[in-house]
Design a protein that fits this description.
By secondary structure, the chain is mainly alpha-helical. The protein contains 17 helices and 2 strands. It is globular. 50% of the residues are buried.
Length: 524
């Protein structure tokens, strides 16, 4: 799943500047600046952050390619021997926590650490988490996953904040920079599974996790080497937290978060709570946070009745996006297992590692993103966001109709890899109709001063989809695989049909300008 990168990049607010703010003579990308000029005319600071982002994503996607397979693998083969349903729930919860961590992480960047130290601390946490996972002993799984999720919540908003500050007053340059960073995500997502899946499946699962750790270590070394290229950017938080307020906040966090976590942890150690019960409690938390966050935004000062109407319409779009991410989250989970157990992976005498199929999604994204961008430009305003969302959900549902066919065919023996590649192709086409369109819509309907929070809200609902997708995976323990995939297909298709039917009404409400009457219906 390629989307967990974006929340950090979009949740970090920047100090507003006019479009014509002149560039300071010592700006880090100016000639003769401390940053100097790096690769192909890019400033050195940019090259440094690009390398860090690339290796951080390498570590994330490399681990995600083998995590589920490691959880369900037989202990004799070095795995944990989890039930498929429990492993799906844990993997889905982990993905959702990566989304959620960007919210407190972005706050820590702005108020406590500053962007530069937050990125460094986050990289260290990620490295430590992967190293724990690389230890060939039981008991390190949950601390390792927790450290990686926490570190991701600091690294992404930290780096995004620095890029944004470097290009203050030059939005076109900032947009171009983030586009280049998005390419690094896809390249890392393409290459990382090839490395970690080969090592994990052929040599040792823990060696695969170790390769992910090595990737982050390389990123940290590059970050340290390029430290001086950032000038004074990101050294201090934008709005430092007063010491008295920091102490009050620490007490509040300990009471609200620390005590419940201590109680749950103690109950787990004492055997009063099973792993399944702990995962269900954590999943319930993931469901509650976006709902609370949305209600607080809806009641925030500065949001008038007209904006509230648009936000209420957006809620249905966000719920629909959760359904799509629920489907998309199956890729690193049960589709990986299907690749391992039911796909003919022998090519010229070489058995392709199952995790390599995770590289299909970023490959299709790299190939199809320009096509999708050209299509949206050609369609213009004739087709609104609800109709595009509906198309994405119908494609997602269609992917699992195809997957049900593959599962049925697998009952007669290993199936062609083209089945699975077709499923990934449909899911990627759906992602291109939901992911970027949803982000653009969230920014469009955001009240003034709320853009960052609205974009964060979009990814919070994506976290809901990932968490629920993992919990839904428990059904594989009680229903046949073809039935399971048809249930997923039905969910996507029903959501797509519902959006198709309501597209015209939703578009009217989403397009309603603040302070005016709802415009007449247009094409959906």
């Amino acid at each position: 799943m390629n989307t967990p990168d974006t929340p950090g990049a979009l949740n970090t607010p920047h100090t507003p500047h006019t479009p014509h703010t002149p560039r300071a003579p010592d700006a880090p990308d100016a000639p003769g600046s401390p940053g100097g000029n790096g690769l192909r005319g890019r400033p050195r600071w940019f090259v440094t952050l690009f390398i860090v982002d690339m290796w951080e994503r390498f570590s994330f996607y490399g681990m995600l390619a083998i995590l589920f397979l490691y959880l369900v693998a037989d202990p004799g083969d070095g795995g944990l021997g989890m039930a498929e349903g429990d492993a799906a729930a844990l993997s889905g919860l982990y993905m959702s926590l990566v989304f959620l961590s960007a919210l407190p992480g972005g706050w820590l960047v702005d108020r406590v650490f500053g962007a530069r130290r937050a990125t460094l601390h986050g990289g260290i946490l990620i490295t430590a988490g992967h190293l724990l996972l690389a230890v060939p002993a039981t008991g390190w799984l949950y601390p390792g996953l927790g450290l990686v999720a926490a570190g991701s919540g600091l690294v992404k908003p930290g780096m995004a904040s620095m890029v944004g500050r470097m290009y203050d007053g030059r939005p076109e340059r900032r947009e171009a920079a983030f586009s280049v960073f998005y390419m690094s995500i896809q390249v890392s997502a393409l290459v990382a599974p090839l490395v970690t899946a080969f090592l994990g499946e052929r040599v040792s699962w823990h060696l695969g996790f170790g390769a992910a750790a090595l990737g982050m270590v390389i990123g940290l070394v590059c970050y340290g080497a390029g430290w001086s290229s950032f000038g004074g950017i990101g050294l201090a938080p934008d709005r430092p937290l007063p010491p008295a307020e920091a102490r009050r906040l620490l007490v509040r966090v300990a009471l609200i978060g620390g005590l419940p976590a201590l109680v749950v942890g103690s109950a787990s150690v004492a055997g009063l709570l099973t792993v399944r019960q702990v995962l269900m409690l954590a999943g319930l938390t993931v469901l509650v946070v976006p709902a609370v966050y949305y209600r607080r935004l809806l009641r925030a000062p500065g949001i008038g009745p007209a904006h509230r109407g648009r936000l209420r319409a957006l809620r249905w779009m966000l719920l629909a996006s959760s359904v799509f991410w629920l489907l998309f989250a199956q890729g690193p989970l049960l589709l990986n297992l299907f690749a391992q157990e039911a796909v003919d992976r022998v090519v010229g005498g070489f058995t392709v590692p199952a995790g390599w199929f995770q590289s299909a999604q970023p490959l299709f994204l790299l190939l199809l993103s320009p096509v999708a961008a050209a299509l949206w430009i050609r369609l213009g305003r004739r087709v609104g966001a609800p109709a595009k969302f509906a198309g994405g959900l119908l494609l997602g549902g269609g992917a699992f109709v195809l997957m049900a066919g593959a599962a049925s065919a697998a009952g007669r023996g290993p199936v062609s890899p083209l089945w699975l590649l077709g499923v990934y192709l449909l899911l990627v086409c759906g992602e291109l109709a939901v992911g970027p369109i949803g982000l653009s819509l969230s920014a469009e309907v955001a009240p003034p001063g709320f853009t960052g929070r609205m974009l964060g809200l979009f990814w919070l609902f994506a976290a809901v989809g990932a968490a629920v997708g993992g919990q839904v995976g428990r059904l594989v323990d009680v229903v046949p695989d073809p039935v399971y995939h048809l249930l997923l297909a039905s969910l996507g298709l029903l959501a797509g049909v519902a959006l198709t039917v309501s597209a015209r009404l939703l578009r009217r409400r989403l397009d309603a300008p603040a302070g005016s009457a709802v415009p007449p219906a247009r094409a959906s």
